[in-house]
Amino acid sequence: MYCLFEYASDNNFSLQINPASSVNPEHLQYFR
Fold first, then answer.
1. Which is nearest to 3 in space by CA: 26, 23, 20?
2. CA count, 13 A, side-chain hemisphere, 13
3. Which end of the chain, N or C, is less surrounded by CB atoms within 10 Å?
């Protein structure tokens, strides 16, 4: 699993959007 993406199935390497991922609206605060 790659956080933003996840494998679509166990027997191939196609990726889909991970429904558990989200966008942090305060992400720019990490770079201060």
1. 20
2. 0
3. C
Q: How far apart are CA 26 and CA 30, in angstroms?
A: 8
The amino acid present at 27, given as its one-letter code, is H
**pTM for the predicted model, two decimal places:** 0.32
How confident is the model over 5-27, as a mean pLDDT?
A: 72
Question: 1-32: string of b/e by CB count within 10 Å (b at 16+)?
Answer: eeeeeeeeeeeeeeeeeeeeeeeeeeeeeeee
Instruction: Dump the DSSP string for 3-22.
Output: TTEEESSTTS--EEE-TT--
